[in-house]
Amino acid sequence: MPRPRKRRRREVKRISRSDARLPEYDRGQVPEGLVTRRQLRDLGLSPGGNVGPVAILRCRICANRPQWSCTHPTRGHLLRIDLATRKRIPTLAQEWALDRAMAARSTCPKCRRRYHFCLPLRTQGCCDPCDKGFEPTPDTYTEPPAKHLLAA
């Protein structure tokens, strides 16, 4: 029987706020022009020319410790908004290619029904109703496309 592991206490690295590599701001005190990655996404921008964060947004826990630098994983990284670029929008051909790829993953090769989820084609090779022999409920799949019988 294996021995239970001893739990090691994680050492807390205390770094003085004056020795921190990047400037730190508490919530509500961030200067104009600095935003988080999530705020960039809400504005329809991507980091673009930002090489890395220019400042740190301190977490709520560290708001009570003004002399220490924030080392928690919940801290946010602030980016410059003037270096951000517009998000790239996929072309219609790219969207069409992605739709075809998803259709290949969610269409059963036996019954030709397209489901609302990806099928286990590597392991089963078909959908569950075809594999187990029962009729699927109509709300789990979309109707198969109409056959095109024209010559041209």
The unreliable regions are 148-152
Mean pLDDT: 82
Quick one: biggest sheet? Answer: 4 strands, mixed
The coarse silhouette is flat
Specify the helix fraction band: 10-25%
List how many beta strands DSSP finds.
8
Helix count equals 3
Strand residue content: 5-15%
Which class best fits the helix and strand makeup? alpha+beta
Encode the helix/strand succession as letters. Answer: EEHEEEEHEHE
**Terminus-to-terminus distance:** 73 Å
Brief characterization of the structure:
Helices cover 17% and strands 13% of the residues. It has 152 residues and is of the alpha+beta class. The chain is flat, with a radius of gyration of 27 Å.
Could you characterize the architecture of this molecule?
It is a single chain. With 152 residues, the protein is an alpha+beta fold. The chain has three helices and eight strands. The protein is flat and about 70 Å long.
Give the SSE map.
Blueprint: E1 24-25, E2 34-35, H1 37-42, E3 45-46, E4 55-57, E5 76-80, E6 85-86, H2 92-106, E7 114-115, H3 128-132, E8 141-142
Parallel strand pairs: 1-4
Antiparallel strand pairs: 2-5, 3-6, 4-5, 7-8
